[in-house]
Structures are given as C-alpha cells and as structure tokens.
Amino acid sequence: MALPELAARSALSKLGARCCTPLRNQSRPANGFLQTQQRPFHGQRSSPAAVDGGRQSVARSRSAPQSYATMKRLSSGFAQTAISSVISLANPQDTKSGGARSPVLRPDDLFHSFSDSPVPEIRRRAAFIKQHASCPHPDHQPGTGNTAAAHVNFECPDCGIPVYCSKEHWADDYEAHLEVCDTLRQINEDDHDLRSGRFFPEFEYAGPQMDEALVNLTNWDTFLYTRQFQAINDDRSMRQATRLLTYPATIASVLHELSPYSFGPGGRITVEGLKSISALRYTLHPPKSGGGQDVKSLRLEAPPVRLFILGARAESSLPRDVWVQLAHLFPNARFHLIFIGPESMANRDDEFPLPPRTPSNPFGAIVEDRVWPKMKISTIVDYYHNIHRTGYFYPYDPYFDCFVLFHPGLGHPASSHEWEETIPMLLETKAPIIATGYTQTDMERDVEWVKKTSAGELDILMEPGENVFRSLRWDINDMDPQDVSAGNWGTWAFRGKRYETTHKSES
Ligand SMILES: [Zn+2]
Ligand SMILES: [Zn+2]
User: Fold this and answer.
1) Helix runs in 430-481, H state only
2) Domain boundary among 135, 164, 194
3) pLDDT (tens digit, 9 = 90+) per residue, 318-352?
4) What spacing in Å lies between the alpha carbon of 74 and ligand 1's midpoint?
5) Looking at the structure, do residues 394 and 246 belong to the same domain, yes or no?
C-alpha cells in the first residue's frame, strides 16, 4: 500500500470522535485549523522559516473565507456534518480493527430521540440544533405579529429530531411536518447505524474491473452489481455506501461512454454537450494500443485527464479507495485529481503543516502520486482564481481538462460572491464544468446565477436534473432540520460559449 494512502487514512481515523463540524468550527479561532500537530507530511521536512512562510500565505488566503466558511456551514452547510461522519466510519482502520470497537446498538435498536441518544455525539448534535434552528410554525413568521422567533425544542416522537419550539406548534403544524417525518426518521436511524459499532462491509471497495466485463451505469443497482461490490444487500447499506461513492460515480456517469445520460429527444445532453463530452471520451476511452512488445507497436501514453475539483471540502478527505473507483471505471485512462479551495484540507488535520511554497511547488500542494498506478491526487489550499491568474495550469485543453463543482452554492447568498471571480475564468478555459446541488432549489439557484453573471456567454452541456448517482442517504441541515437534502442530488454541466471559427466543410 502506498504511503500517501496510509497517511490519508490515518487522517480519516481521527474523525471518529468528532462532534458536528459547525460546533467544531465555531469554537476554533480564525486559522485555528493550522494549529494542529506539526508533523511533517509524507516525510517532507520543512525549515521553520519555510513553514512560517507557508502558514502566512495560507493565513492570508484564509482570512477572507473564514467568515464565509463559518457562515456557509451555518446557513447552508447541509451534509458536511453527515458526510464527515460517514467518511470517518468508512475508514477501514475503524471498521476492521476487530475488538477495538464493540457494537453499542443492535440493528433493531437504531431509533432514539436525538436528545436521549445513547451516542454522545448525537446528543451534542441535538443540543446544537436546539441552539440554532428556528421553529418553522407560521406563527413565528415576521409580519404576522403573533410570536417572536423561537428555537426548536420539541422532538417529534416519530422521528426523534427537534423540529418545533413546542408540542403545541408541532401538533398544529403536523400536516406540514408529515411530509418529511418519515425521511427524518430514516436519517435518525442511519445516523445511529453509523455509530452502532457494527462491521461495515459496504465500505469495502471493489477492485479493478475485469477486462471483458462491462460496467452498467444505468443506476446504482446495476453499477454496484456489475462492479462486483459485495455485501450491499439492504437499503441502509446502500444509503451509507452511496453517500461516498456518489462523488466518483457522478463524475463517471457524465463522462463515461456508457453514461446513462443521452443526447437526442428526451436526453439531457445538448449538442454542445456532445461535442465537449466526446472530446474527453476520446482521451478517457483510448483504443487498445495493440500491446506488442516490439518498438514499432510502442505507443506514447496520453497525459492524464485533469479533474479540477473546486471549492473542495469533505470530498477531498474521502478514503482514497473511493476515488480509485474512478480509475477502475476508465482502466485505460490516467487521472490527475486536483482539489482546490480554502477548505480543501478540512478533516485532514494530520497532514498539516502544508508543504512550503517553493518554485517547484508554488502553491504548496500536497501531492499523493501513488494513490493508484493511473491516478494522482493533488490538494491545494487556496482559491482557484488566485492560481488561475498565475497561469500555473495553463494551457487548458478540452480533450484533457474538466472542472467539477460539488454543491458549490454558486447562487447561495452566503457564497456566490466567492465564485464571482472564478466562474468567468472557468468559462474562459472552454473546458466543461460539471456541477451538482444538494436539492432542486439549490441547483436551480446556481443555474440562474451562472446564466445571469455570464450574460449568456455559456453553453449548457447537460440540462439540470436529478442525478442518477446521487447519494441515497438523506441529510438534515442542522440549522433547519426539516430542510432535507442529499449529496449530489442534482447535476448539470456547462462551459464558456464556443464560437465556430472554421467553416463547416461538410453538410
Ligand atoms: Zn413554534
Ligand atoms: Zn417527525
């Protein structure tokens, strides 16, 4: 096993005992994330001066987003808490450590009210929700002149989650609550399941695809079956597994030649989409080289496809086996995953301090080049637009480059200003941009915002809609527990408008 993978996993194993991210972040000072143990990463040693320089530069880039980061978590930070928990539990060191963790909850004993949960972490989460979420009863609406705003304090007996300020308001608004109550109960049980101490076979990942076996990307069932995932037999395991696999599967489902999204009547891929995606597929599905041993049949290996994952948060700390699934889906391609964003080292405290910024590594990237023979991962704690301006990744090539924005909150009032500089640069590259949203509303707000800010200088490559490979697990927003969302619920794609510069020779 490659060293970087070990390092990444050891980082993940630290997550187990953490409370919800919002609490943790709130209690930390600005840049507090840097004051963790100063262990050289991957054996690289840094001089104190270099470390200081690195910290300062990160601190600078961090000072602006700090308020944003907190605010976004507090206002729209759906799912970051939940996914951090899943990630920590998906870590093989946690799940396979034999006697280290003994089961605390039986599979038939997963429902507990959050406040009276046997799991301390969930009790702390209940306290957080009660402190921050407001009662949704119409009486509290501003302008109605009825009742002042009030925090939630009453836990619905059916879902066990604090949802109203009082039993009276809960009973009075019961019909509205019923729309989400079943889902909330499922979330409650899934959260307890995750901390039940059971063995998690669903976090064992399938190895390379057999040469002659085609993967079927029609839906999660066919994907897991044809990829020979073992032991995902029930809905709960499916929900836990897809919470992580949604990241590589969402990317693959758009780019793969066997994509479930089609072009033509009823399909979501547009004419422009077909052009862009075909270019990438040309690189991702190269013809077999013939494989001869003699000099004549040697072929130059194509450079890797660069996937720029911007605004990266929890996804950058996914177990590497999850990302390697992408490599298994494109066995003849090479990938370079580049996570970029001020929060791209979230959950990876053990890997601090960051490597110093040097002429050969100007952005202090953490490089994991042995994740898989055909996959390399780099992580950069900075804004993409700061890097773009330097020309560091230039030139961009539609056959080799693609941007991915997982729940970027482009149109969210708390985060859209952060994308204002970035989006025009992405459009300028003319490389495809795949984006996702937590809910339909979240995604549509992003689409509207991009259309408005780009003043029409964009082509939609894939129409917005539900993601075939969304997380099947639902998450609650701790600031508003009835606001239910799913990781990568929806997906769409776009790029900067391309104008034909050559005359068509045919047709
Ligand atoms: Zn109320
Ligand atoms: Zn309920």
Assistant:
1) 440-453
2) 194
3) 999 999 999 999 999 999 999 999 999 988 888 88
4) 20
5) yes
| Smallest-distance ligand from the CA of 173 | 1
**CA within 13 Å, CB half, 266:** 1
Measure Cα distances from 392 to 366, 384, 401, 424, 503 in Å: 16, 11, 14, 17, 33
Residue type (1 letter), 407: H
Structural domain including 180 reads: 100-194
pTM: 0.81
With 0-12 / 13-18 / 19 or more C-beta atoms within 10 angstroms meaning exposed / middle / buried, residue 372 is buried
Tell me how many helices (H) and strands (E) the chain has: 16, 12
Read off the pLDDT of residues 93-120 as tens digits, 9 standing for 90 and up.
Answer: 444 444 345 678 888 899 999 999 999 9
Q: Same structural domain for residues 336 and 432?
A: yes
CA of 162 to the centre of ligand 1 (A): 11
Question: For helices 80-90 and 3-13, what crossing angle results, to 10°?
Answer: 120
From ligand 2's centre to the CA of 180, what distance in Å?
7
According to DSSP, the β-strands at 433-437 and 401-405 are parallel
* For the CA of 148, the nearest ligand: 1
Residues 351 and 441 in one domain: yes
Q: Tell me: do 245 and 382 sit in the same domain.
A: yes
Q: Measure 163 CA to ligand 2 centroid, in angstroms.
A: 8
Tokens of 46: 């840094």
CB atoms within 10 A of CB 227: 20
- Which ligand approaches the C-alpha of residue 154 most closely? 1
For residue 318, being part of any structural domain is answered with yes
